[in-house]
Amino acid sequence: MYDIVWDPETGGILLKEAASEGLKSAIRPVFHEELDLLGFQEKWRYPRVREPLLWATTVGRLYFYRGECVAEAKGGSFFQAPTIRYFREDLELTPVDVPAMLAKNAALMRSLTQEAIGFIRQSYDRERPRADIAAVAFSGGKDSLTLLDLVQRALRPDEYVVVFNDTQMEISPTYEAVEKAKKRWPHLRFYTSRCHKPPEQTWREFGPPSRIHRWCCSVHKSVPNLLLLRQLAGNPAARVLVFDGIRGEESPARAAYGRITPGGKHGTQVNVRPIIKWNAGEIFLYLFERDTFINSAYRYGLARVGCSICPVASNWWNSIVFRIFPEDCETLLKILLEYSHNLGKFECDYVDSGAWKARAGGDNLGQTSKIVEIIYNTDRKYIIREPSPNFLEWLKLLGNDTKMGEGYGCISFKKYLWKYN
Fold this sequence. Notes:
Order of helices and strands: EEEHEEEEHEHEHEHHEHEEHHHHEEHEEE
Distance between the termini: 52 Å
Strand order of the largest sheet: 10-9-8-11-13-12
Number of strands: 18
Structural class: alpha+beta
C-alpha cells in the first residue's frame, strides 16, 4: 500500500506515502543461509546471525546493500546452480538494524495494521450471518502468517477455524511452520484438509500437472478444503466464509482480485482478502515487528512457499528447493523423469528445461477414451465405461452433490444441473 525506498542508515527499508524513487519490484530480506548456499563467502565477509544482512528483488534477482546494488544472481534450475555476478567484491556486511528500522516505520505500519484489523472485523460481521462457517486459509508462508496474526487480533477464537491445506507436496519447512503456528496460537482451532489420494497416485493417473492442465489445484487444494469446511459445518451444501492471504503484488491476475469475492473459488464460498494491497516489504516489517517466526525456507532465498515441484514455479525455486530439500522432491521428480523417458525425451533436459510444464495432451498416460458422448437435439448424455470405484468423489469437482438414491443423484452449480445414474 505504501511505496518503499532503501534506508542506508539502518540497512533496511522505509515506507513512504508517495515516492517517485520508490522500488517497483517486490523485495525480500536476505539471510546468511542464502549467501552460504550460493557461495558468497568466497567474495564477501558477513556474520551468521538471525537478522537479515541485505535485500534482494524477486524479479531480476538483484542484491542491494544499504541502497547499493552489489550483486546479481543468474540462471539456475533443478540440475544447475545459479551463478553470481558481483558489482562489489571484498565486501563486509553489517546486519540490518531491525529495531531501528521498525521504529522508523512504526507510524505507517500502525495505520496499515489498524485498517486491516478493522476491515476483518467489519467483513466478518457483514458476511458471517450468510455463512455456515468461517475459516482462515493457512499455508505456512509469510502472507498466511501475517493474515492469521491479524485475524486472531480482530476476531474471537470461537468465531472461526484455521485450515491448513496439505497438498502432500509441501516442502519440509512448511510442515514445521504449521506446528510452530499451533504452538504460538494454542487457543485457535487448527484443522488439516487433504485429498484422499496421494500425489504420486494422481500424478500417474492424470499425468504431471502443467500450466495448461493445473488439475492439481482443484484435486489437492480447493476441493479438499471445501469438503472439510462442509464437514465441520455439518452441512454438505454449506456456505463458507474464507479469509485468505492472497496479495495483488504476486501476479497481474491476483492484482485484479477484489478484496471481497463471492463465488470466486466456489459458488457457496466468499473470499475475504485483508492484505490484498500489501507489498512484501510491509509483510516482512509486520512479521519482524510482531516477532513472529518466518518459514525457514525464506532464509535460503525463496520468495514464496508452495509445492516442492510445481508447474508454475520458477527455475530459481527449482534450484533452491532441490539443493536444500532434495528428499521433498524425490518422489515427484522420479515420476517426471519416468514420464519424459516414456515420451522418448532425454529425461534430464526435458525436466530441467521445464518442457513438461507445457503439457497439453494426454500422451503417455496409457489410457484410452472411456467417455462416450451422445447428442440428441439439445440434450447431451455421457456414458463412462469402466468408471473408477471413486468416480462419484470426482463428480464433486463440478458442484454440490445431492444423492437421490443408491448410485444416482444430481450435481448442481449456479444455474446448471447434471443428473447421473
